[in-house]
Amino acid sequence: MAINATPMYAKAEERYRSAHSPAEKVAALEEMLRLVPKHKASEKLQAQLKEKLKNARETMVKSQAAKSGGHGPGDLFSIPRQGAGQIVLLGAPNVGKSSIVGALTAAKVEIAEFPFSTHAAVPGMARHEDVPIQLVDMPPIMDGHAQPGMMQAYRAADVLLIVVDLAAIELIDQYEQSLKLLTDHQLRPVSMPVLEFDEDEEAAIPKRVLVVANKFDTPGAQDNFDGFKELVGGDLRMIPVSATTGDGLPAMMAAVFELLNVIRVYAKKPGKPADKESPFILPTGATIHDMAHLVHRELAEKLTTARIWGGTVHDGQQVHATHVLTDKNVVELHFP
Question: How far apart are CA 35 and CA 99, in angstroms?
Fold first, then answer.
């Protein structure tokens, strides 16, 4: 019998499957257990989740005890997720990762002509329209190898940006080394919003990836980009950008938003205009009830009615809690 898991549960499960550290697994399992539908068909799943959570907590305690008194190698690269999603940049020295983050955020990145000017993870908040999305600059990989702790950040990211330099002779090598780093660590790069996980927990984990070809403002960049796409082929989406002129960066952020597989929804109080400053971010396929949970978990169970604007309904139409939301809906929740 199907358990009819919600998009919110599916998002938590995705984070669990991608988690590498014990703390990440515990957080994801706690969310999965909270969101799993509570009925007879899901009793077996609930028991499995409780057992996994128990084991994950024990592992986390042991891990924390082992690291007490010092910092592990992953601490420099562990950044709390903010915004609609966490986007981590990956690439060789001098491809322009820091320049991209610097062009889109207020992060204090070090932009230099010499390699290895970035020594730790540097987060900044970028935007796609009115949606905040976190970009994280990382130290470069060298000859296809990453510093200890960096792979944990790549695993935890919602989307990876593989950055290459269109002006570099070793353009193809930059791309192939980045791909090899991921596949060597059991990550399967894909450019699709909906991930398909293998039932075998030992199988490679699908990871959303966008290839960003930087320095599109340099001489011959268009020909280099065309040749690059033709030579490497594959199904990964590629976008040319220039961190210097800004060309392509809005298209890159739009592609990132699409890969995140989320929607934005605006809340509206009765008799007042919608709050367009701070949209609620939900997984694609989320319902009115899912949004109510974000607003107030306890009140969500008492939700009586809702009115909605935008999308496929008439403006102000009354809808049920099971109504599926679409991007840019305005929702007015009614509680007792």
Answer: 39
Q: What's the predicted TM-score (pTM) here?
A: 0.86
Fold of 75-260: Rossmann fold (3.40.50)
CATH architecture of 262-334: Roll (3.10)
**Span 61-115, pLDDT tens digits:** 777 666 655 555 556 788 888 999 999 999 999 999 999 999 999 988 776 665 5
* CA 58 – CA 263 distance, rounded (Å): 35
Domain residue spans of the chain: 7-67, 75-260, 262-334
**Structural contact between residues 123 and 142, judged by C-beta atoms closer than 8 angstroms:** no
C-alpha–C-alpha distance, residues 113 and 203, integer Å: 39
Residues 6+ apart with CB under 8 A from 65: none
User: What is the distance, to the nearest Å, from the Cα of residue 69 to the centroid of all Cα atoms in its chain?
Assistant: 32
As a whole number of Å, the CA-based R_g of the chain is 21
Among 35-44, 120-129, 172-181, whose mean pLDDT is lowest? Answer: 35-44
The 10s digit of each residue's pLDDT in 126-138 is 999 999 999 999 9
Average model confidence (pLDDT) for the chain? 88
- CA distance from start to end of the chain: 34
